[in-house]
Design goal:
28% strand; two-stranded antiparallel sheet; alpha+beta; 24% helix
Length: 181
């Protein structure tokens, strides 16, 4: 017996203009993408969709994607990683912080989880909540000003394996996502 996937509709991605399956938190992601451009002043080119992340965890390769990764300098420095959620934001905080600590050779300064209506903004280095609500997401102008003198920090090597396990554990629970279609 063959495995039948639930039928889904397609919607047009705000950033890329490409048709994407409307599964999971996709509508929420479209709301956030539009908000970042129209309300926060980011260019579409500042926003990377489905940023690939590849880790070796306990000797095995693990591949996934981050919903949105934001830069403000033409893509040279990533400043914010965003997980778009369809449900409880609190249950996704630890996942996005781990991802922001692992994606680059430095910790992406801000981690955000949002459902398109509200958001939780976290300091990636400390893991602490620094803002709540869509207004807490910094505008491009605020991000450039705040982070122009910031010294980007690598994640400590002695905690790296544990962080990879945390990310994989949370991320593997995301079954209703485009990459699994």
């Amino acid at each position: 017996m063959s495995k039948t996937l639930k039928p889904y509709t397609m919607i047009t991605d705000f950033i890329t203009g490409k048709d994407v399956p409307n599964v999971g938190a996709e509508e929420n992601r479209q709301t956030i993408e539009q908000y970042l451009v129209e309300q926060k002043g980011y260019l579409k080119e500042d926003i990377q969709i489905d940023a690939d992340i590849e880790l070796t965890v306990a000797g095995e390769l693990y591949r996934s994607q981050l919903d949105l990764v934001i830069s403000a300098d033409g893509g040279k420095t990533r400043l914010m990683a965003i997980r778009c959620a369809a449900g409880s934001l609190g249950s996704r905080e630890r996942e996005i912080v781990a991802a922001a600590r692992l994606l680059e050779n430095y910790q992406i300064p801000l981690s955000v989880v949002s459902d398109g209506k509200t958001a939780i903004v976290l300091d990636t280095v400390t893991g602490k909540k620094i803002g709540e609500g869509m207004d807490a997401i910094p505008s491009k102008k605020e991000a450039v000003y705040k982070f122009e003198s910031l010294e980007l920090q690598p994640f400590p090597n002695d905690r790296l394996e544990r962080e990879k396990l945390i990310f994989r554990t949370f991320d593997s629970e995301n079954v209703n996502v485009q990459r699994n279609i």
